[in-house]
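Same chain as my last thread, 256 residues:
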Amino acid sequence: MFASLLGIFIAVLTAVFLLAMTPNSSPAGLAAAMSLLVACGTTTIGFLLGAVLCWRLKQGNYSGRFGWLIVVANVTIIALLFILGDRLDNRVEGSAIAQTIAMVFFGGLSAMLFIVGVREYARQSRALRTAVPVQAKIIATRVEGSVSADTDPSLQRNTSTTSWEPIVEFSYVHAGLEHVSRRLHANVIVRGYASAESAQEAIAEFRPGTTVIAYVSPAAPGEAFLRREAGLGPVVFLAFGIAIPGVVWAFAVLAL
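reply #2:
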């Protein structure tokens, strides 16, 4: 909570500073200041929403991390103002076409993140509220890796990254019908791990052939899950879906 309050305080100072500099700015400087003001607003609102939702889900550590993201975002904006200084007023207007393309692309990405976050948060809340316990048998466990593309082949090193996903496959019977599921939490957003070892450790409690308790919502009988706790994936999608547009607009105005 301290981090969130500190972030809000710094965000207010940032907004006041940006508003104070606009009366004496050139049109280019005014556009830059307004874009940074929007970035200040969207990052603060998005990450504050993430902090509040994590607090409601009793995830205090992650709530604090979102609070520090507010601090970092607004300190970065203030640092940009001091670094760029008078250059904001004297900068050359960028390409309107490039700015529009960037906004359309990243705006679509943000909208997708936000919509998926809202949908999965609602589905998760409903599933956790209505789920009933059932006996389930662990069929198999494994860890699968996925490699991202090399983002810049011109560099002398490979910039691709590998993310590891823990998978637990289990069977259960609900309303007389047998089902198979692979869900750890009550949403479809899967958390990736930086190493195969940490991913394996996350599912070490589930051993093939053993019987465990799973949870199934009558509204989705084929989507049982093993942990009756809120996953943070929907919260992350929601927060960044709100935060990204302002940051992209500021980048488009200042850099393109």
